[in-house]
Amino acid sequence: MKKKTFIMICLTVIFGMVLGPLQSVAAAEATWPSGIYPPPATGSFTSLNGVFDRVSTDSSMIMNGADEVGIELNPDATNQAGSMWSKNPIVDLTKSFKLEMPMFFGNNTISGADGMTFALAGTRPSAKGNSGPSLGAWGGQGGIGLKPENIAAQGLQNSFVVAIDTHKDDMDQNADYPGLNPNQQYIGSGYPGQASMYAIGLPLYKTQLKFTPTTQEPLQKFSDNIKDNVSNNLWHNLTVSWTTRPTGGTLNYQLTYRSGSGSKTTPSRSITWTKDQIKQIFGTDKVYLGFTSGTTSGLVLKYKEPHVLGIKSLADFNTVKGTVTLKRGNDNVTETTRLNIGDKLTYDYALDINNLDGRPWPATKIVLPKGEHLEYLKEDGTAAKAGDTLKIQVMIGSTTQTVDAVVQSDNLSAVISSDKLVLPKNTDSIVKFSLPAQVASHDLVSDQAVTDGAGTLTGGTPVKDYKLINTVDQTNNVKYVIAANPGELTLEKVPGFYFEKLGVSGLEDPTVADVINGIPGQNPFPVTSAGIDPTQWLNTLGRKTPAGYDGFISVKDSRPTKPGWTLSMKLSPFTRTEGGYVLGDNGNTDGGKAQIVLIDTNPQAQLKVASIKDNGNDTVVKSMPAGNSDWDLKDDSSTAPITQALMSIEKTPSVHGGKYSSTATWTLANAPQ
User: Fold this and answer.
1) Cis before residue 114, ω within 30 degrees of 0?
2) Does 260 share its domain with 113?
């Protein structure tokens, strides 16, 4: 039940007188420093800033100013064992990737040695490996009494390598050297920490690498001859890719090498691992990326060469995580949270882009969905419509910039498409922003469970889509319940009245004599407005609504079930403003002398709506049956409609002159009577 109380100005009595309201980051190719090594082809290498750290002091990053643009596993010196590894396990074997690596082996075509490896390892090595033919990865060269298990223990543990071997040694007896006088270089693959990788050659107990898989050795390992000498002062390209499959994945590798006769390739090799084999090899599916190398000393010739490489792109190892949290106040919204009309909400977004690559990472598009019963809010607090632009303050690290999000034509999402959101190279960037929203008005008669998408982030080079994650349940959805609309029963307007009489010269204030003699009204009450005799009533024809009051009665009912309602009114006794005299006989203060009749001037309606005496008793003005809702009582004026009313007053000989008023109390009950 709701009540509103208003002062109703009702009567003036006269005696002789009238009493009465990212910074944009430009993309640029990495450049090679001038100096000891010729540059690889432009675009074939990228900045590696902060991704790798050396394990061996024989290794170093190749710098161009502040940029790390390549890796020198070892200089052109003997007895080197290069080792350079990613600081973190950046290779996720549950995701596909491709690496292209330009490689340089110096210009020692006769005594160049010994080669370098591409390596993956489940644990990051803490010390460099063996030099010489071990290439910093394989186990040692053997010894009396040693077994394959002993050699494997000396090798790179929990690992797989692709080795480019540039000098034939005792370890390479099983490598692919076909025909007469072949080039004694090969590309091979295998598992340095696995005993199945090694054999012991007799009688000198020299280590021999085993490349040909057998049925007893299910882990595949290959060896392929390189037909032209790659220690020729030219850059060559090793490509390694990994394709995930439901049961594991397949690794492919191939070397493209250059010589005076043009470019050639080694056979493309594919090695498939099951998930169990991945665990057997690495112990994990998150592995480190590394490179190793080795050179030897010789009695006559110095078996040495530099081992240098670059990486075309690390983009496939970028990690992109985006989250959203829908909140009401300080509370997270869950799938059981009931959201009511008008609830203020906030979508909090956080994007973590760990860009390992040497090119900036453009966030080209961010789609921010919402449900049909929610609406985004603009800066001024009003609801956004389709086509509106929302100004969003985006924090990148410690800097803030403004980007635009456009509400889409279906009004179910806003989209950020901005060239401003370009994140720096070789950097882990945290991007945060929020979007205010509210529950819109609706007519749902029962609670409705809702599942919205959490959103998508599109960006990078090449461009990829990343689904955002709801922090509440770690899914790609935002879930909640839209509570049924209980609706609202509202007494929106109630009028104030100013009554006058129709005199000879028009409308005027009644006199004391009029009240002494009484203002009788009409009995029976007229059926139509044409039957009203204005000389028998005080009336509101002057349309004088007291300042601060409404002109007419208005009830609004937005309850979906429309159960009906009752509006009642009671009048306090009319009382003289000065002195407190109550309109009555000889000091009687019970009232009841005056009666107001509310009328409906609509020709299709019943003229008399209700009669209310000024005795403090409740009188039903309107009982709205179930199935109906709103009601206005007003005349047909298009500019300032009012509720029309008439007043009668019984004879009151003891009336005092002055201004009289009565308080009207309106009661709106939520059911019909």
Assistant:
1) yes
2) yes
Q: Which of 94, 250, 90, 255 is nearest to 166 (CA)?
A: 255
Residue at token pair 């890796």 = 71
Confidence of residue 215 (pLDDT cuts 50, 70, 90): low
Widest CA span in the chain: 144
**277: exposed, middle or buried (Cβ count in 10 Å: 0-12, 13-18, 19+):** middle
Q: Which residues contact 576 (CB under 8 A, 6 or more apart)?
A: 582, 583, 656, 658, 659, 660
- Sequence-distant (6+) residues with CB within 8 A of 258 are 232, 234, 235, 236, 264
Can you read off the two tokens belonging to residue 48?
């590696």
3-class DSSP state for residue 77? coil
Task: List the structure tokens of 198.
Answer: 């090694």
Query: What gap in Å lies between CA 591 and CA 156, rounded to an integer?
Result: 106
Domain at 397, CATH number: 2.60.40.740
Residues 455-498: pLDDT tens digits?
999 999 889 999 999 999 999 999 999 999 888 899 999 999 99
CA distance 146 to 149: 8
- Among residues 458, 482, 506, the one where a domain terminates is 482
Question: Do 371 and 509 lie in a common domain?
Answer: no
The total of structural domains in the chain comes to 3
Specify if 609 maps to a domain: yes
pLDDT at 179: 81
Q: Which domain holds residue 160?
A: 52-312
Of 495, 498, 491, 500, whose CA–CA distance to 549 is shortest?
495
> Shortest CA distance to 323 belongs to which of 346, 345, 349?
349
Note whether residue 125 is domain-resident: yes
Q: Report the percent of the chain where pLDDT is more than 90.
A: 82
Domain boundary among 453, 482, 511: 482
Closest CA to 394 of 385, 406, 403: 403
pLDDT tens profile 595-648: 999 999 998 899 999 999 999 999 999 999 999 889 999 998 778 899 999 999
Tokens representing 29 are 């190719």
pLDDT, one tens digit per residue, over 237-286 is 999 999 999 999 999 999 999 998 889 999 999 999 999 999 999 999 99
Taking only the tens place, the pLDDT of each residue in 424-457 is: 999 999 999 999 999 999 989 899 999 999 999 9
Structure tokens at 112: 């160049």
pTM here is 0.73
Q: What is the helix, strand, coil percentage profile of the chain, to 5?
A: 5, 45, 50
Block residue for tokens 């290779």: 91
**Residue (of 253, 279, 222) closest to 94 by Cα position:** 279
How far are the Cα atoms of 273, 340, 542 from residue 574, in angstroms, in the given order? 97, 44, 21
CA distance 40 to 49: 18
- Angle ∠(116,167,111) on CA atoms, nearest 5: 110
Q: Which helix (H) or strand (E) holds 328?
A: strand 319-328
Report which residue type is found at 459: G
pLDDT digits (tens, 9 = 90+) for 304-318: 999 999 999 999 999
387 and 241, same structural domain? no
